[in-house]
Amino acid sequence: MKTTQYIVAMLAGAAVLASCVKEAGNELPQPQDLITIKAEMPGDVTTKAGAHVGFSWYWGEGDKIAITGADDTQIYTIQDGFTPKYAEFVGKPVAGDAFTITYPEKAATADWSAQTQTGNNSYAHLKYAAELAGVDDYLSFAFNPDWAAAHNGTLKQVGVMKMVIALPDTVSAVNGVSISAEDAIFYKGNGETKVNKLELAVENAAPDANHTFIAWFTTSWHEAVVPANTVLTVSVKTKDAPITKEVTFTSEAVVMSGKVNVFNLDNTGWKSPNHYTSGKGTATDPWIITTAQQMTFMADDMAAGETRFFKLGANIDMKDIAWKPLNAASPYDKKIDFNGAGYTISNFKCVSTAEAAVSYPSFFGVLYGSCYNVKFVNAVIETNAKGCGILGGYGGTTDKPCYVEDVHVQGTITSSAGNNVGGLFGTAREATILKSSANVVINAKGQMNGGLIGADAGKGVYISDCWTAGTISSTASICGGIAGDIVATGSSIYNCFSTATVTTQFIFGGIVGRAVAGQKSNANNCTNQNPENHIENCIAWNDLLKSDFINEETPAEHYSSGIIVGGTAIKNYLKNCWRKADINFIDCPKNAELGTYAPFDQSDADPENPMVKGEGQYAFAYHGKAAASGMTLSQLAQAIGWSTEIWDFSGDTPKIK
């Protein structure tokens, strides 16, 4: 072996053993004989800078050496009487003209990726390993580059990494140290395999009086290159909680073999991000969340003007968590990438009251970034203010877009005051929503409520291949199975269906309540404006669409409601939308009495071919076309061209794959 007698630097050899060169005419021993060979350890080791500091390897009891010749390998065992630097070994001779000498005998398969150190600044665990390759003699040799060169060979020998770590004052004990990079740059052992992390377990260790801990690693006999701009993460497992620190190498560095590579770390910049099961919060190494408690750490690790990456690693039950939204304070610039990885978040709850107000009660508050591949089951949102949904009060905001895909929510949303309530978002602004669903019970007192979104805003929203179910109930108006109100030019909905019950006073639709780019549903605006909303290939299969109009003493004619869209600009793109043949549609009393608001089949419309206005004063409803009696929703969706790559049509109701 073995370890060092005195240490504070690194190992480069300077051997003094006189080489024993074969003399002409000398005969090698016979194969059946045992022979004795002489071997010398390296001299004092140096740091990378070359300073001698008394670091030395030495022989140990039980040491063995392997020598490989032309045809075979023999193992040589150390003999009694060795000294720290000089030893004799006995074994059978090998034949050949060039030899490989390996110490210890299995050094080529050594693994340095995980080691154990006992105590602070202890190096008893360090192990020397070396290989002389292609040399012309093995009877007397030295692990020394000069000796190797003089004998026509080369020397490989392990290195050492010495990490001098200044720790925060709060650290009382150290249980482990690791150093890692995003890419595999370290050698796992003396073979060719590379890894991205070297780990050191630590036992019975505490920082010294200056809160410094010194960790020692044996490193491969292959030199590891650290490219310029590499970020290395040093992690220290402490008694209380792990801490990490990132160090950026602005120029290329090399973990040298045969030397001590000293790595100094001051006590600044330490963080405690390992709230999570693993990860660093980056795109290539997201924080992995596996417990409800870890969910609560997310808010602390969000950062203004930066993107944080999270990924679920298990189903999460949040029944005991009083949730506060992650990004609910202006300027809403905490960007997130949230990957549910197919897992489910159950019993999520966010409540806002007059006594304890929460802005935009929801999971994200304002979703700036992406959320995908996740389910919320039995979610509860309760508020006395406007702007709420299970995912966000807002889905995106000005110049801070959001992207949602394969997100499915189920739960209850109650708003005792205010507008804009949706299954996913109260308001969607600069939002894309794909292949998602909401099976929700919404109880609201304000306007503009919908199964996916309450309303859009600004640059609008793109929704495609989504569905909703449940109940959307409001004592006000402007509600829809997919969206309550579309107020932005260009906001569009494609290939969506709803089976939700929608109940409000007026301006309601199975897909959209109102689509007039923010204008009131009067005759002029609905006739003249051109908001370029696309409501195409959608299906209203709602269980019930009902006006709960509160009768006045003299009820008046009220704004129209429709099976696809309650009130629409007639120059919108209204194409290939369908309704259930026997859909239960109940208009407000006066409209029903007039008989001019009853559903009828309508032709497709666009700015060049405006929708034909109904006969009533406010009859700007879009009812689409009635499906054939007895036709299933899946049959209809296939008939109008929905993608079999997205939808499963094996049952009566389509499912997102």
Topology:
Elements: E1 35-40, E2 45-46, E3 52-55, E4 64-68, E5 73-78, E6 86-91, E7 99-103, E8 114-118, E9 130-135, E10 140-142, H1 145-150, E11 154-157, E12 159-166, E13 174-180, E14 186-187, E15 194-195, E16 197-205, E17 212-219, E18 224-226, E19 230-238, E20 243-249, E21 253-255, E22 260-265, E23 287-289, H2 292-296, H3 298-301, E24 307-312, E25 316-317, E26 335-339, E27 344-346, E28 349-351, E29 366-367, E30 369-383, E31 392-395, E32 402-415, E33 421-422, E34 425-434, E35 437-444, E36 449-450, E37 453-464, E38 467-474, E39 479-480, E40 483-486, E41 492-494, E42 497-498, E43 501-504, E44 508-509, E45 512-515, H4 523-528, E46 534-536, E47 539-540, E48 545-547, E49 565-568, E50 573-575, E51 578-579, E52 585-586, H5 589-594, E53 625-626, H6 633-639, E54 647-648, E55 655-656
Give an overview in words.
The structure is a single chain. This protein has 3 domains: 35-159, no CATH class; 161-265, no CATH class; 339-643, Pectate Lyase C-like. The protein has a 27-stranded parallel β-sheet that branches. Strands 10-1-6-5-4-7-9-11 form an 8-stranded mixed β-sheet. The protein is elongated and about 115 Å long. It has 6 helices and 55 strands. The protein is mainly beta and 657 residues long. The protein starts with 34 loop residues before the first strand and ends with a strand. The protein is 5% helix and 40% strand.
